[in-house]
Write a structure and sequence with these properties.
Blueprint (H helix, E strand, L loop, with lengths): L5 E7 L16 E2 L2 E2 H11 L5 E6 L4 H10 L6 E6 L4 H16 L7 E6 L7 H14 L1 E7 L6 E2 L5 E3 L7 E10 H11 L10 H9 L4 E4 L10 H13 L4
Parallel strand pairs: 1-4, 1-6, 4-5, 7-11
Antiparallel strand pairs: 2-3, 6-10, 7-10, 8-9
Helix pairs in contact: 3-5, 5-6
Bound molecules: cytidine-5'-triphosphate and the ligand C[C@](O)(CO)[C@H](O)COP(=O)(O)O.
Ligand LQXTBERG binds next to strand 10.
GO molecular function: 2-C-methyl-D-erythritol 4-phosphate cytidylyltransferase activity
Protein name: 2-C-methyl-D-erythritol 4-phosphate cytidylyltransferase
Family: Belongs to the IspD/TarI cytidylyltransferase family. IspD subfamily.
């Protein structure tokens, strides 16, 4: 089967409130390179990803073009767009580029939605995700939970305990047929109260298409708080990532 065109939407439009630093977390230094560098580097080298749509914060397009895209020669970055208030607003802004293009294209393509806050995505993961989306139309990478998970009631008491063998911690990339995710987001964005914390939820809720879980990596962590930066430094050194 011929390989389908794969676009990555890389999200870097957040404010990093939980990190609590003056500089937004996507630009924080990890072993001499900004956090945003790492996933863009993986996509630049990838045999799977053909182009990257980069979503950045308000007023940051020029800065990112000069200091990240041009500086590190990320030639697969085809567009840089501004994000929105919530993560899903940023995804929606990125999807607009593909939505416009789809009008003139007949071929199906795939979209890899990725948080730049997850620097340790790798090519094997992208390959597994490609196989997943080709077969199932929608897939997310994740890892089986090593811990027992409790759902709490509103008062902080354990309400139920899902069977651990079925609990997955999901990560990004989250990968979809372009037409499927565009339609899911188009429907969802019309709703008054949107409550999704990942892209799979849009497809589950709006399209009722089952989303396949494929193996990510326990090291594909999301850099969220200060302690995560120390772990990231260790992983960068371990994999001689630079
Ligand atoms: N409005 C937003 C919010 C988040 N993101 C991106 O989505 C990813 C996951 O979000 P998160 O880790 O929560 O980042 P922040 O929103 O920056 O962090 P916080 O919630 O602590 O403010 C990050 O790569 C972030 O840059 C985005 O593009 N646009
Ligand atoms: C999409 C995600 O990375 C999957 O784990 C996660 O839900 C993003 O959450 P955040 O609160 O926007 O960081």
């Amino acid at each position: 089967m011929e390989k389908k065109h794969c676009a990555a939407i890389v999200l870097a439009g957040g404010q990093g409130k939980r990190m609590g630093t003056k500089i937004q977390k996507q630009y924080l230094d990890i072993s001499g390179k900004p956090l945003i560098y790492y996933s863009l580097h993986v996509f630049e080298q990838s045999q799977i990803i053909d182009e990257v749509i980069l979503v950045v914060g308000s007023g940051e397009i020029e800065y990112v073009q000069e200091n990240i895209v041009d500086f590190y020669h990320f030639n697969k970055v085809s567009r840089i767009v501004e994000g929105g208030k919530e993560r899903y607003d940023s995804v929606w802004n990125g999807l607009q580029i593909l939505k416009e293009r789809r009008k003139s294209e007949k071929e199906e393509s795939f979209v890899f939605i990725h948080d730049c806050a997850r620097p340790f995505v790798n090519e094997e993961m992208l390959e597994r995700a490609y196989e997943g989306v080709e077969k199932y139309r929608a897939c997310v990478v994740g890892v089986p939970s090593k811990d027992t998970v409790k759902l709490s009631d509103r008062n902080g008491f354990a309400a139920s305990t899902p069977e651990r063998d079925r609990v997955w911690i999901v990560q990004t990339p989250q990968v979809f047929e372009s037409s499927l995710i565009i339609e899911a987001y188009s429907r969802m964005m019309k709703e008054e109260h949107i409550q999704v914390t990942d892209d799979a939820m849009a497809v589950e809720q709006q399209m009722h298409v089952p989303v396949k879980l494929v193996m990510g990596s326990y090291e594909n962590i999301k850099i969220t708080t200060a302690g995560d930066l120390d772990i990231a430094e260790i992983f960068v050194k371990k994999y001689k990532f630079l």
